[in-house]
């Protein structure tokens, strides 16, 4: 079932990546020299927000996928559940990192970068249930996850800013 | 021969290897390494970080 869920995630991630790539055409008037600094700046803003240094409301469709999609048909429901989570738009967005990544993809204006980010997003989402299952201690793993949420958001955002900086330096 | 997984050490190692921080550390190292050696892969790792940062959100 995790495989079907992951397939749904990949489809959803690919859809969002395609939409972001199509929308990235709108940033073509932005001078190329400004794009990387802007993406890095947004990533740093996200880190500051997740660290509690600034308060910034970000748009989100804070709705969960209804539980009954899994009750009607398990396989189809897992695919739908994965797809909707994979798009990243029908879920609670608890970190700034997805927004910063989306802005970076928009500013990159590159189909390959968008698709790879979408695939990576889906696999990143799939890692959570896979790791929880592999731990063999579901609720204890959930407790440990709560302790690590700051590391996930602040550490991940910092890594994003560093990676974007390195990409910009390498040209 | 006793299965190594049944030993007392296995649950400890299993807990460490499946700790929620492990993917973050792996992806952080991967992002920096990819930015140097395989820039296009950096985007997949950025996506992975973004997806994994939503752990616990449904």
SSE sequence of chain A, one letter per element: HHHHHHH
Q: From the structure provided, what is the oligomeric state, counting identical versus distinct chains? A: heterodimer
Q: Report, as a whole number of angstroms, the end-to-end distance of chain A.
A: 42 Å
- Radius of gyration of chain A, rounded? 17 Å
Task: Note the overall shape of chain B.
Answer: flat
Round the mean pLDDT of chain A to the nearest integer and report it: 90
**Strand pairing plus helix content of chain B: what structural class?**
mainly alpha
Q: Give the topology string of chain B: H per helix, E per strand.
A: HHH
Q: Specify the biggest β-sheet of chain A.
A: none
Which two chains touch over the largest interface? A-B, 61 and 37 residues
Tell me what portion of residues of chain A adopts beta-strand conformation: under 5%
* DSSP, total strands of chain B: 0
Quick structural gist:
Chain A: Keywords: Membrane, Transmembrane, Transmembrane helix. The complex is a heterodimer of chains A (171) and B (58). Chain A is 76% helix and 0% strand.
Describe this protein's structure.
- The complex is a heterodimer of chains A (171) and B (58).
- With 171 residues, chain A is an all-alpha fold.
- The radius of gyration of chain A is 17 Å and the shape is globular.
- Chain B is an all-alpha fold.
- In chain B, helix 2 packs antiparallel against helix 3.
- Chain B is flat and about 40 Å long.
- Chains A and B meet through helix 5, helix 6 and helix 7 of A and helix 1, helix 2 and helix 3 of B.
């Amino acid at each position: 079932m995790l495989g079907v869920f992951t397939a749904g995630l990949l489809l959803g991630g690919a859809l969002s990546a395609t939409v972001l790539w199509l929308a990235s055409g709108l940033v073509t008037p932005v001078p190329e020299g400004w794009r990387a600094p802007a993406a890095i700046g947004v990533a740093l803003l996200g880190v500051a927000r997740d660290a509690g240094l600034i308060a910034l409301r970000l748009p989100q469709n804070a709705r969960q996928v209804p539980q009954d999609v899994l009750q009607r048909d398990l396989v189809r429901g897992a695919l739908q559940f994965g797809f909707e989570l994979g798009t990243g738009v029908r879920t609670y967005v608890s970190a700034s990192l997805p927004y910063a990544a989306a802005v970076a993809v928009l500013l990159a204006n590159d189909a390959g970068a968008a698709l790879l980010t979408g695939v990576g997003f889906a696999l990143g989402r799939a890692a959570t249930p896979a790791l929880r299952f592999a731990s063999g201690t579901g609720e204890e793993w959930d407790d440990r996850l709560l302790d690590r949420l700051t590391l996930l958001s602040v550490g991940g955002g910092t890594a994003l800013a560093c990676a974007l900086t390195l990409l910009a330096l390498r040209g | 021969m006793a299965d190594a997984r049944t030993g007392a050490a296995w649950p400890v190692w299993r807990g460490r290897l499946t700790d929620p921080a492990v993917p973050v550390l792996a992806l952080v190292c991967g992002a920096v390494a990819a930015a140097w050696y395989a820039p296009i892969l950096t985007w997949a790792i950025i996506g992975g970080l973004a997806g994994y940062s939503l752990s616990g959100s449904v």
